[in-house]
């Protein structure tokens, strides 16, 4: 913009000079050469450079802030999407199981209805004091000995009862129950430096000592629930000098527990928390730093930062 205005000004001066309107005389009117000599383009350059530098600094700061926010939102969205996908799979399995259960109950009811004789059936006629009876069915008349018919009815009743008992046992067995052992324990092999222990940083416990059920993943620090049930989760972390941290236990995108630790000068502090939660198969459980985090998260031979859990029921 400044360059364009300067060129227009010089052009007007030049036109005036060539037309004889601008001449160097005794009145002190400057010539074109005097005007050019008096101009110094570098007078405005430092100020513009400072302004541009300030703008670049502001733009880079905003870009860094937006990038950090987008990264956090992306991470939260991916966790939420994964939890919803797991929930959908669980509901689909539940619907399929309920459909099987409905079909099973309908077949059992149909079986019982076939056992019960219709109300309009013709009753057996006993005549002439004999044990011969006449009974009517869909194929016509037939004769049975009364004693044999009673035994047949008794066998049908016992058969129907045993079938119902078997159906009830099968129904109980189809309800998904599991008593399999699920447990894990892992800790960090080294400390997490302050420049990485930023808010919402997922702690990765890379040394795995116990992983029954293969639910814990040391590459991501996430425990993926292998079976629905009630679980106990425990985590512990250590701060060094002048460090403070809040750590959260997350189930998918929801916070289930948080603990804070603030260490004074020349001191060390270990903080521990426990959570009991009912979680579903496929849920993600992990530990991360909260918004209030500063300093190094230590893990060494004198104190470990750890994460553990087991299925209670």
List keywords for this structure.
313 residues, alpha+beta, Jelly Rolls, 3 domains, 6-stranded antiparallel beta sheet, 4 helices, 13 strands, flat
Describe this structure in words.
It comes from Magallana gigas. Residues 1-20 form the signal peptide. Keywords: Secreted, Signal. Residues 21-25, 39-45, 121-146 and 172-177 have low confidence and may be disordered. It is flat, with a radius of gyration of 43 Å. Helix content is 40%, strand content 27%. It has helices at 2-18, 32-38, 45-115, 146-174, and strands at residues 132-137, 140-145, 183-187, 207-212, 216-217, 222-224, 229-239, 244-251, 254-262, 269-279, 284-294, 297-298, 306-311. It folds into three domains: 2-39; 117-174, no CATH class; 179-311, Jelly Rolls (Sandwich). A hairpin with a 4-residue loop joins strand 5 (216-217) and strand 6. It is built from four helices and 13 strands. Helix 3 packs antiparallel against helix 4 (146-174). The two termini are 74 Å apart. The chain is an alpha+beta fold and 313 residues long. Strands 3, 4, 7, 10, 12 and 13 form a six-stranded antiparallel sheet that branches. The protein has a five-stranded antiparallel sheet with strand order 5-6-11-8-9, with helices on one face.
Query: What is the radius of gyration computed over CA atoms, rounded to a whole number of angstroms?
Result: 43 Å
CATH class of the largest domain: Mainly Beta
Instruction: Show unreliable segments.
Output: 21-25, 39-45, 121-146, 172-177
Q: Report the count of strand segments.
A: 13
Gap between N and C termini = 74 Å
N-to-C order of helices and strands:
HHHEEHEEEEEEEEEEE
What's the main sheet like? 6 strands, antiparallel
Keywords: Secreted, Signal
Domain C1q: 177-313
Biased composition (Polar residues): 118-131
Pfam families: C1q (PF00386)
């Amino acid at each position: 913009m400044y360059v364009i205005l300067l060129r227009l000004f010089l052009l007007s001066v030049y036109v005036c000079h060539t037309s004889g309107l601008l001449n160097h005389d005794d009145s002190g009117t400057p010539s074109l050469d005097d005007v050019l000599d008096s101009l110094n383009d570098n007078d405005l350059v430092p100020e513009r450079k400072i302004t541009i530098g300030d703008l670049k600094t502001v733009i880079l700061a905003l870009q860094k802030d937006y990038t950090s926010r987008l990264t956090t939102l992306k991470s939260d969205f991916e966790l939420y999407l994964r939890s919803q996908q797991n929930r959908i799979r669980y509901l689909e399995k539940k619907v399929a199981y309920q459909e099987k259960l409905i079909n099973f109950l309908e077949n059992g009811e149909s079986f019982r209805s076939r056992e019960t004789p219709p109300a309009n059936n013709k009753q057996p006629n006993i005549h002439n004091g004999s044990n011969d009876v006449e009974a009517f069915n869909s194929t016509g008349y037939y004769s049975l000995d009364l004693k044999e018919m009673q035994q047949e009815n008794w066998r049908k009743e016992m058969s129907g009862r045993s079938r119902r008992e078997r159906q009830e046992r099968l129904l109980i067995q189809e309800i998904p129950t599991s008593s399999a052992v699920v447990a894990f324990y892992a800790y960090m092999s080294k400390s997490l430096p302050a420049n990485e222990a930023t808010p919402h940083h997922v702690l990765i416990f890379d040394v795995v000592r116990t992983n029954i059920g293969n639910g814990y993943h040391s590459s991501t620090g996430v425990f993926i629930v292998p079976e629905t049930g009630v679980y106990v989760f425990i985590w512990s972390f250590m701060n060094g000098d002048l460090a403070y941290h809040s750590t959260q236990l997350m189930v998918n995108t929801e916070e289930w527990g948080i603990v804070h630790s603030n260490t004074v000068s020349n001191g060390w502090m270990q903080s521990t928390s426990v959570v009991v939660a009912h979680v579903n198969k496929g849920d993600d459980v992990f530990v991360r730093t909260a918004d209030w985090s500063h300093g190094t998260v230590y893990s060494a031979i004198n104190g470990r930062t750890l994460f553990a859990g087991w299925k209670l029921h």
